[in-house]
Structures are given as C-alpha cells and as structure tokens.
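User: I'm curious whether this sequence folds into something compact or stays loose and floppy. Could you predict its structure so I can see for myself?
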Amino acid sequence: MRIRGGAILIAFLLWAGSACSPSATALRSSTTYRVPATFADGLLVAIADLYGSPAGANHWDCVPSEAHPRPVILLHGILGNMADNLSGLSPMLANEGYCVFALNYGGDPLSIFGGVIDIRESAIKQFGPFVDSVLAATKAEQVDIVGHSEGSVMPRYWMRYGSSVASNGSPKVGHMIGVAPASQGALDAELAERLRTNEPFKSVQKALAENGCGACLQLMNGSEFMTSINGAGPFPGERFSGPAQPGVSYMMLATTWDNFVVPYRAGFIDHPQFKNQTVQQSCLIDHADHLSIVFDPVAYDLILNELDLDNPRPVRCVATEPAFTSVEQP
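Assistant: Here's the prediction. I'll summarize afterward.
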C-alpha cells in the first residue's frame, strides 16, 4: 500500500504540474518583446540574425484571439528582408496580442536582399502559398496585410490575379495596409517615362532586369506591372477589375518626408475603398522618411487603429527623424 500510495502521489503531482503549467500560447501572450526605437536600432537588432524572423513573428502555433481574429502578415520592401525591415512592426504587433507572420520573398535564399525578382512571381509563387499556410495553421478565416514599400504592391497583384478568394466566396484578406506605399510607382510619371526611353538610363534598366532585378523596372510609375494592378482592365486572369478587391479595406499610409516614393502622393489610390493619409496629418513634427516610418510610433498607432476599427486609440505625436537626409515634399 505504501508503494501504491507513493505512485499515486507522484502521478497527482505530475498531473497538477502539467495542469498548472501555461501553454505555449499563454507563455507567448505574456511575453513582451523589445521594440527598436529607431531605424538604426532596428538594424543593429537585425544584424544578430539577418536570415531569421523578427521578434514576435512566425510562431506557427499562435491562436488568434477573439479581440484580434485575423493574423497579420508583414511584408518587407525592395532590397530588404523581414529581419531588418520588420524588426519594429513585428514585436510591436505581437505585444498588442496579434499573431504575426512574415516571410522573405523575391530574392536568393542566401542573399539578405529581397524583393528584386519579377513581382508577379513573388506574388503568385511565394506570397499566395504563404497566406494559405497561415490560414491553415491559425484556422483563421482571413489575414490582414501590412506591407512596406514594395510590400504594399506585391500582395495586390496576388489579390487581383491569384487564389485570393476562399471557397465560400469571401476574400482571404480583411485589411490591406501599405506603409510608405509605392502604389503607383516610386517615381514621378514624367521622370519615369524619361528614364524608360532615354539613354543611358534605358540600357541600365534593361541590364538590371536581365540580371535579376525585374522589380526595379516594375516599381516605376507607368510600368506594365503598375497598370496591371491599378488599371480598370479587364485583363486576362483577373478576379476583379480596378485596384480594389471587393470586401477588402485599404489604407495607404505615406510620409511627406519620403525620399524614395516621389511624390509621396504616388502612394495613394483614388478609390472609395482606399483610405489615403500621411503621418503628418496626425503629427506635424513627424519627420519619418521612407525607411524610418516602419519604426515610427505615429505610424504604429495609425496601423493599430486601422487593424481594429472598433477600438481606436489616441495617436501619439513623436518627432521621428529620417533614417537618411531627407527634405519634406510640398
């Protein structure tokens, strides 16, 4: 009886220990990740693991909460990757209770520079399957997307031409947010046309495309790619016409200090489903540029408010500095 009693006691203690131990999801929900304060700080964080996931991202056992039922997929821009480009957004969203996912797309797996190959290939062959994997893992009905720079246009190609509609007919995306978006291209339309047609720029662009940077040409205003996602159409293979997928909410969040998308208004789309705004509309002293906007508390609050429209929060006003020398656009 003494042996049996001891065995029962041990079994009880083991059961009690396991019952009282928090689950992996509970442990993660109680974890607070450090959010880099600046672009330079974020870069230092990324250097520790340039090929890895940013803090808070890609926990495939994450269960979306009732408050945040849609997992958020983060997308880097051209020549970036998820480690350096998303080292601020990812921990910030994870700290807010979101299931966060990110991927490196559009580049050689051994390179830290992504988003360079043909954007259409990145969208259909990489991003689309990733969305399906996130939906399957989390058992969510939709995802939300937050994309920086090229990451604001690549998913829109998949939404228009890929498998972006669920079997029940609803879109797989709830919210599409572009940060420092290149919605119509990175350059003024007139300048882009000059670069496309005049030497030596014409030959340089051709060489870039032939050597693996198809995205370099596609991200220019007036390119065939830009027409394919923004034009009225109809175009072969499209699921809908025009720039917006029915049932999806869009926000394009720009900065007047952008030093890559010039003019910054090229990030906007004139369509009823699109909300276009700058961080300066909420905070005049915010000098975030194309890179530092993804480390900007003003942008963070605006993104959070768009992801959770029913629970808006006051938007902070912080004098975020540009990552590089920048001049405010008129």
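Summary: The beta strands are 72-75, 100-103, 143-148, 173-179, 249-254, 274-278. Confidence is low (pLDDT under 50) at residues 1-24.
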